[in-house]
């Protein structure tokens, strides 16, 4: 049965720019092997800017811990008056209830009228609950090739901590 979920929250970024966010999720069954879904986020910032993030995905659970998915991203930012899009394929593996790894490869671009590819990427993300269900750590090495650098390949490493209150 399809599921629809809508949420909202208020956050702040540094430098301080509070925003209100509304989310909507819709999941559906494509067939006996594939699931699909749509996620929409809309943000309104104190500085009177809007942003939207849209995701359309299809996922196939290959076994009890491994999932193959294809995702299309479309984002619009009022401040830059630009639309960004990406297509990615990922293979995720749930190691245990508190950690997972995700291989991902894709392309991204931007345009309002003349689409072009700006970036090609391949990477891996390892995510783990560090302290109970309150702190999540993510380590993401990737290789990125961007149009601005004639698609020369550069390594990138991102470390992230999420605190859940």
What does this protein look like?
The chain has one domain (3-163): monomeric porin ompg (Porin), CATH 2.40.160. The chain contains no helices and ten strands. The protein has strands at residues 3-11, 19-29, 34-45, 49-61, 66-77, 82-96, 99-110, 116-131, 135-146, 153-163. The chain has a ten-stranded antiparallel sheet, with no helix packed on it. The protein is globular and about 40 Å long.
Helices and strands in order:
Blueprint: E1 3-11, E2 19-29, E3 34-45, E4 49-61, E5 66-77, E6 82-96, E7 99-110, E8 116-131, E9 135-146, E10 153-163
Antiparallel strand pairs: 1-2, 2-3, 3-4, 4-5, 5-6, 6-7, 7-8, 8-9, 9-10
The domain tally reads 1
> Largest sheet at a glance?
10 strands, antiparallel
What Rg is obtained from the alpha carbons, in whole angstroms?
17 Å
Gross CATH architecture: Beta Barrel
- Spatial strand sequence of the major β-sheet: 1-2-3-4-5-6-7-8-9-10
Number of strands: 10
The CATH class designation is Mainly Beta
CA-based shape: globular
For this structure, the CATH topology is: Porin
Cα-to-Cα separation, first versus last residue: 31 Å
The whole-number mean of residue pLDDT values reads 86
Beta-strand percent range: over 45%
Q: Helix segment count?
A: 0
Level of helix content? under 10%
Mind telling me the CATH superfamily name? monomeric porin ompg
Main structural class: mainly beta
Give the uncertain stretches in residue-range form. Answer: 1-12
